[in-house]
Design a protein that fits this description.
Spore Coat Polysaccharide Biosynthesis Protein SpsA, Chain A, globular, 2 domains, 496 residues, 7-stranded mixed β-sheet
Length: 496
């Protein structure tokens, strides 16, 4: 009974943590809906007045971007802002043969009168954070706009973001990501679904109540003095954007999130690329939890509620670990439930997981209808999308849990970039991309084993107990079987 007791305790803790996170999401939904009732009345720069137009530097941190470099530069050249108040830095850490082509393209743009510079380094110290810090040393702008290589801001992007900096307490203006290849595949659809939840429910829900949010690494603008005051970019975590965001807000800088300003970008279309991005984001989140936990708890500048939301925000990625624990232990729990009659009352506790799922379902529906619209047909489409998203997200739980554990124990690893593809429509192909990893992750084999394990869970529903089976966990095991099956088969078949 000792082993059974250990399983029950661990399972219970994991379920409770997931439920707490779900309640926080519900609170963010309430904040999000409340924010829609209030009009923002921020003071703004009048950019029609030449005396109020501030100097802006656009930083483009790039690394081996053969497929999107030309598109990026041509798009940035269309930014509508006075040329005498605009500087563009191409922070090029590339190690392949793209540097000469990039240099030639930049020289062509310079002939149009654009102040654009090609800045290269002899090493990648600090990776992206190091490149941004290097560029900042010579940046002319009062404000620093940052775009990753796959982002395509509209020409009026600066005119819609820079005016908010008239408020001297604002250190960052962040915009919402949109997705140019949202409907390319199931993989891109579920990535868009997850990001849309973050960029509506979470960012608005936190920002509207003055809780900490994060600069998302791209599609946002920093006040240069805010970066310096917060301690500048640091490369000791894989999510330098989250790190600097928290350091800035702990020093009382305010962030402004603009849900209505979309910045289109490209989603990874191959599962190996999505895996590397997910690993970096989730490990970086755990690293930042270690780095920021005591700073947030000890801060006298922020309320208790902001601290709670901040810590749950930093623990976002750790939810994958809790989901993975609940998933793996759910099959032993099924047998324990039907073996020990006196414990049956306890198993009503498992309804906490069902309640958490219902909360997520409700919260994400409001996000979904904000983007896709409402109505009966849309709701049925949403049910299918939610089921698919939840299944595949759980299929990534082993991969992301390993990332989280590495982050929490402080294991260092290289910043692995996400390959870009220049995928705009269903006609475009990703095959032949030279930046794709050619080797399979060893985790893939375990994911295949887990698919079979949850297949056994489905079988178990028919044979446990003496009452003709127990189907309470059948839907959960079905989603896990589908999710791990999808991740496993996609990983072994999607090769360049």
């Amino acid at each position: 009974m000792i082993l059974e007791s250990v399983i029950i305790v661990i399972y219970t803790i994991a379920i409770l943590l997931i439920f707490m996170y779900a309640l926080a999401q519900l609170n963010l939904l309430y904040n999000y809906l409340s924010s829609k009732k209030h009009q923002s009345h921020c003071e703004k720069y009048d950019l029609s007045n030449p005396n109020e137009i501030p100097y802006v530097t656009i930083q483009l941190p790039v690394y081996n971007e053969m497929y999107v470099m030309e598109r990026l530069l041509d798009n940035i050249a269309k930014i509508d802002y006075p040329k005498d108040k605009l500087e563009i830095q191409v922070l090029d850490d590339s190690t392949d043969d793209t540097i000469p082509q990039t240099k030639a393209h930049i020289e062509t743009l310079q002939q149009t009168g654009l102040d654009i510079k090609h800045i290269t380094r002899t090493n990648r110290t600090g990776f992206k954070a190091g490149a941004l810090k290097e560029g900042l040393k010579v940046a002319k702008g009062e404000y620093i706009a940052i775009f990753d290589a796959d982002f395509l801001p509209q020409p009026n992007w600066l005119q819609r973001t820079i005016p908010y900096f008239k408020n001297k307490t604002i250190g960052v203006v962040q915009t919402r990501w949109s997705h140019i290849n949202r409907n390319y595949s199931i993989l891109t659809k579920i990535q868009a679904f997850a990001l849309d939840a973050h960029f509506t429910l979470e960012q608005v829900g936190r920002n509207s109540k003055g809780h900490f949010i994060n600069f998302n690494g791209t599609a946002g603008v920093w006040r240069k003095t805010c970066i310096i005051d917060a301690g500048n970019w640091e490369g000791d975590t894989l999510t330098e954007d989250l790190d600097l965001s928290y350091r800035a807000q702990l020093k009382n800088w305010k962030f402004k999130y603009l849900e209505d300003v979309e910045t289109p970008a490209e989603l990874p279309v191959v599962i190996s690329a999505a895996r590397s991005q997910q690993f970096r984001w989730n490990k970086g989140g755990a690293e930042n939890f270690r780095k920021m936990l005591w700073r947030v708890l000890k801060s006298k500048n922020i309320s208790l509620k902001t601290k709670v939301h901040g810590l749950l925000h930093l623990l976002n990625s750790t939810m994958f670990l809790n989901v993975f624990i609940v998933a793996v232990l759910s099959i032993p729990m099924l047998y324990i439930k039907n073996e020990y009659e006196h414990l049956r009352a306890y198993f009503y506790f498992m309804s906490f997981f069902v309640m958490s799922t219902i909360i997520f379902f409700v919260c994400y529906w409001f996000m979904y209808k904000q983007i896709y619209g409402s109505g009966f047909k849309k709701f049925f489409s949403y049910i299918g999308m939610f089921f698919t998203f939840f299944s595949i997200a759980m299929g990534f739980s082993l991969h992301n849990s390993i990332a989280v554990l590495e982050g929490h124990i402080g294991k260092r690893s290289e910043f692995v970039r996400t390959p870009k593809f220049n995928i705009n429509s269903l006609k475009d192909s990703w095959k032949g991309n030279k930046y794709l990893r050619k080797t399979l992750s060893p985790h893939v084999i375990i994911e295949g084993v887990l698919m079979l394990y949850f297949g056994f869970g489905l079988y178990s529903a028919f044979v446990v107990g003496d009452q003709g089976g127990d189907f309470g966990l059948f839907p959960f095991h079905l989603m896990l079987f589908i999710g791990f099956g999808y991740v496993f088969f996609k990983s072994i078949t999607s090769k360049a």
